[in-house]
Amino acid sequence: MAETSALSGLSWPVRTERLLIRQATPADAETTWRYRRLEPVNRWLTRAPDTLEAYRAQFQEPEALAKTLVLEHDSEVIGDLMVAVEDAWAQVEVADRARGVQAELGWSLDPAHAGRGLATEAVRELIRLCFEELRLRRVTANCFAENEASWRLMERVGMRRELYTVRESLHRSKGWLDGIGYALLADEWAAGR
């Protein structure tokens, strides 16, 4: 599986000015549940189990754990990141050159730590890891259009809006909502540094 080999091949943990980023372990289920169950976070998550037990089962699935990173600030878990390395779309004759060349990114942050630039710092480092360490050619991120905090973060880290869809994304309580997709290429990222 691309996710397992990609992230496990890096040196962990990674430190930024204020954060420690490391691979998630099964023991992180309870600490991440504490903020992921909060309504301001939970409303935008793709999967939002109702109980700690259901969340723990989801969190500890090998495929999910393999692409999850945890953020620590002052030794406290304050958020998590997702890096799903994937194949790019390609014609059959060149499909082998499109394997494992891009990643979809995701994130969640404890609202108690919002507004201090920690998510921006974390996602910038995540992008650096994708391009410098994993040698990917492209990263993407998607969200509901109403999730302004998420798409504003995508813009702060230099991602470009590529997609705006009308009532294409089904939300568990809000019905059909507009969606937004952002991306960044390795050469764009290098030029912006």
Automatic annotation (TrEMBL):
This is RimJ/RimL family protein N-acetyltransferase. PROSITE patterns: GNAT (PS51186). PANTHER family: GNAT FAMILY, PUTATIVE (AFU_ORTHOLOGUE AFUA_3G00765)-RELATED-RELATED (PTHR43792), N-ACETYLTRANSFERASE DOMAIN-CONTAINING PROTEIN (PTHR43792:SF1). GO terms for molecular function: acyltransferase activity, transferring groups other than amino-acyl groups. Transmembrane segments: none annotated. It comes from the Bacteria. Residues 19-187 form the N-acetyltransferase domain. It holds the Pfam family Acetyltransf_3. Keywords: Transferase.
